[in-house]
Amino acid sequence: MFDIHELMKHLSQERPIFHSEADFQHAFAWQFHTLFPDATVRLEYPIDLTKRIHLDLLLTFSNHQRLAVELKYRTCYFNSTHRGEVFALKDHSARDLGRYGVWKDVSRIEQLVMANQPNMRGYTVFLTNTDLYWKPGTRVTNDKDFHLHDGRTVQGDLSWQPIAPEYTLSLSHTYTVTWHPYSVLSPEWGGEFRYLVFEV
Fold first, then answer.
1. What is the per-residue pLDDT across 108-158, written as a single tens digit (0 to 9) for each?
2. pLDDT at 17 > cutoff 60
3. Are strands 120-128 and 66-74 parallel, antiparallel or unpaired?
4. What values do phi and psi take at 187, rounded to 5?
């Protein structure tokens, strides 16, 4: 039985920090293969050749059950050394775009799962060391529909008004934003990592 939180627990013990989103994707895929050696793993799997849209991971069990996974990894400045390996994380500012990107992945996974039922489930996983994602904002912003603070319930139409109406999404399901601990490498800002999972 697949438990994504169990996978993230194993992954955090081996890799509490990543250099980049691609590093996170590869490590996630490797951890999945370690836990389920009989399953197949495909990275950057094409789901729409005309629009050149790719899925981060397509995981297929021996019983033909498939998991569609989108992974996001956004960081603030943080330097650390883990098992002799040096990590110098960049600051991914534009957190409004980061929030939008997470919900865009959720929307894409919804559409993919609905088109491939009943043999597919979907997950969007977002890992970050930026606490501004999981803490409520102190002011109202144009991207408020896309906020990811802990405990928030999200459903229906999301829009970025009035300055960017092209950033509009529609969700078919209702989601509760729940942040989970991933790793703590330092008491300094940026030293704590948490993750979100949205399951379709």
1. 999 999 888 788 999 999 999 999 999 987 667 778 899 999 999 999 999
2. yes
3. parallel
4. -75, -10
Query: What predicted TM-score, i.e. pTM, was given to this entire model?
Result: 0.94
CB 110, CB 172: distance < 8 Å:
yes
Q: What per-residue confidence (pLDDT) applies to 141?
A: 74
The whole-angstrom separation of Cα 38 and Cα 59 is: 11
Per-residue pLDDT at 45 exceeds 80: yes
All residues at 6 or more sequence positions from 163 whose CB lies less than 8 Å from its CB, including other chains: 142
Phi and psi, residue 131, nearest 5°: -70, -15
| 3-state SS class at 25 | helix
Would you tell me the crossing angle of helices 21-35 and 4-14 to the nearest 10 degrees? Answer: 110
Q: Which of 5, 7, 132, 17 is nearest to 80 (CA)?
A: 17
Label the pairing between strands 153-159 and 66-74: unpaired
Q: Which of 5, 3, 43, 199 is nearest to 113 (CA)?
A: 199
* Residue 128 tokens, joined: 């970050």
